[in-house]
Backbone:
């Protein structure tokens, strides 16, 4: 992502106080630290810059003292005052000692550090050089990385020229970059490693509801939480709008009225219907009418879909127990198991 768009993302996140930590991943000198401070300056809020490689755990959680017969931890001098707003910038995260990285764990999930709670008006941004072999950095494990929305930061000559003019860089240097844009920075190959998780989907939801993603960068931001494959698939799914399939509500209310529509569904639509029914019925006490409609729905499924439905429902012990109380469903389940055993032999 270009620096201008990175700055806009950070500015929007800070303006809305969105509780999604941002991790900027980029080569040396690209402007990661600068863009964080510029976002804070543009909003007129504080930016606390912690170079984590220079800190020990006590610098973060504060030192203990005794008060009233109890041990309490003094608030570090840099800790934000209640009611203030700002950006807590955790720079050089993957250069920090392991015990410091462990101390940061709680901060990027709960917005608190030991006994100190970050004020609601503060957001967290971190920055690292990529673990590509070119830098003396530690590898961050997936448990740490999945807590962040990772953003790949790259240099762009056109953007740099525009910035350099406004900043007052010597015109000769600007003209040099115009003539030799490939000499602005060294090309470095690296990629963002992100994986889909339930928490990652929740964080995407937080960003969507806050309205902080620009249309041109939303897929890249989502991929920074879920990975490229899932991020692309989710963005396309959201663009298509609400999927068309028979909903659990209609099935449980009156299966007969939607039976023909169910039979005409594509594989993807059928899969969505099964998951919707499993989610709707899981953990719920169904009235007798809904139980009858659920049984009718399952008994009318083709074998492959029936097997899939049973596998989904078995993830919920109470729901699975309810299915075997129906004699017809019990017989069909036994028949399917027998056929499966026969094919395996």
Residues:
């Amino acid at each position: 992502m270009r620096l201008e768009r990175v700055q806009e993302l950070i500015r929007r996140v800070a303006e809305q106080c969105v509780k999604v930590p941002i991790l900027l991943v980029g080569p040396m000198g690209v402007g990661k630290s600068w863009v964080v401070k510029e976002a804070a300056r543009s909003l007129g809020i504080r930016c606390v810059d912690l170079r984590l490689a220079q800190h020990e755990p006590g610098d973060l959680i504060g030192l203990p003292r005794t008060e009233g017969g109890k041990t309490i931890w003094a608030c570090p001098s840099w800790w934000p005052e209640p009611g203030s707003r700002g950006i807590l910038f955790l720079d050089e995260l993957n250069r920090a000692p392991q015990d410091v990285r462990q101390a940061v764990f709680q901060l990027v999930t709960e917005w608190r550090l030991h006994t100190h709670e970050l004020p609601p008006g503060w957001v967290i941004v971190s920055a690292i050089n990529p673990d590509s072999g070119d830098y003396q950095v530690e590898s961050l494990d997936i448990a740490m990385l999945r807590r962040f929305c990772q953003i790949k930061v790259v240099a762009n000559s056109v953007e740099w020229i525009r910035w350099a003019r406004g900043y007052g860089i010597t015109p000769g240097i600007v003209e040099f970059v115009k003539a030799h844009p490939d000499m602005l920075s060294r090309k470095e190959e690296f990629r963002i490693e992100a994986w889909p998780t339930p928490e990652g989907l929740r964080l995407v939801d937080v960003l969507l509801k806050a309205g902080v993603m620009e249309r041109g960068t939303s897929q890249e931001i989502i991929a920074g939480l879920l990975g490229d494959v899932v991020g692309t698939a989710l963005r396309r799914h959201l663009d298509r709008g609400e999927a068309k399939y028979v909903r659990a509500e209609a099935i449980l209310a009156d299966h007969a009225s939607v039976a023909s529509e169910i039979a005409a569904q594509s594989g993807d639509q059928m899969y969505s219907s099964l998951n919707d029914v499993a989610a709707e019925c899981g953990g719920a006490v169904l009235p007798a009418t809904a139980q009858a409609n659920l049984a009718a729905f399952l008994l009318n499924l083709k074998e492959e879909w029936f097997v899939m439905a049973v596998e989904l429902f078995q993830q919920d012990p109470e729901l699975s127990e309810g299915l075997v109380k129906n004699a017809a469903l019990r017989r069909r389940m036994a028949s399917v198991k027998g056929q499966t055993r026969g094919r395996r032999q």
Notes: Strands lie at 22-25, 46-51, 64-67, 70-73, 85-91, 112-113, 116-117, 121-128, 149-152. Residues 3-240 form a domain with the Rossmann fold fold (CATH 3.40.50.300).
